[in-house]
Amino acid sequence: MFDRLAFIGDVDLVFPLRTLGIRVFSPKTIDEARRILTTLEEKKVALCFVHEKYFEALTEEREALQKKFCPVVVEFSDYRKVIDRLDEKLREMAIKATGSDSLVKRRG
After folding, report:
1. Which CATH fold would you assign to the domain 4-77?
2. pLDDT 10s digits, 43-63
3. 41: which of 53, 63, 85, 91 is 20 to 30 A away, CA to CA?
4. How high is the pLDDT of residue 25?
5. Backbone angles phi, psi at 66, to 5 degrees
6. What is the 3-state secondary structure (H, E, C) of 2-49?
7. Distance between CA atoms of 1 and 73, rounded to whole angstroms?
8. Calpha distance 73→84 (Å, rounded)
9. Which residues are CB-neighbours of 51 under 8 A, at least 6 positions away?
10. Is the CB of residue 37 less than 8 Å from the CB of residue 48?
């Protein structure tokens, strides 16, 4: 029987989910993510959330899994992309208002 939930993503995103009893995987490469995805059926995972960083690269593997009942593979995003978009919007607004983005603090 399939009764498990899993997440594939960067360690800082998925590790806290482990405390909830969710199976998490933090691949270092696309090839490692590919191997993980192909073993989900053996591990009896019913639903797997894959971070957007890996989702497109794993198209072939996801399509192969779609022919089966489980696991269902779904993409998820994280806060980092939203923050980058907000940063970009603030820069655009600063340039429109002052002609420069020097008032917007740069990260890193």
Report:
1. Rossmann fold (3.40.50)
2. 888 889 999 889 889 988 888
3. 53
4. 94
5. -65, -25
6. CCEEEEECCHHHHHHHHHHCCEEECCCCHHHHHHHHHCCCCCCEEEEE
7. 17
8. 26
9. 7, 8, 9, 10, 13, 14, 75, 76, 77, 78
10. yes
Cβ atoms of 25 and 14 closer than 8 Å: yes
Written as six digits, the tokens of 17 are: 């989910």
The model's pTM = 0.67
30-38 vs 59-66: helix axis angle to the nearest 10? 10
Both tokens of residue 60?
Answer: 């072939």
In this structure, are residues 3 and 34 in contact, taking their beta carbons and an 8 Å threshold? no
Tokens of 5: 């939930």
For 65-88, how does the pLDDT look when each residue is reduced to its tens digit (9 = 90+)?
887 777 888 888 877 666 676 777
What number of other Cβ atoms are within 10 A of residue 9's Cβ? 24
Two structure tokens written together for 46: 């019913």
Residue (of 1, 103, 99, 38) closest to 50 by Cα position: 38
Question: What is the length of the chain?
Answer: 108
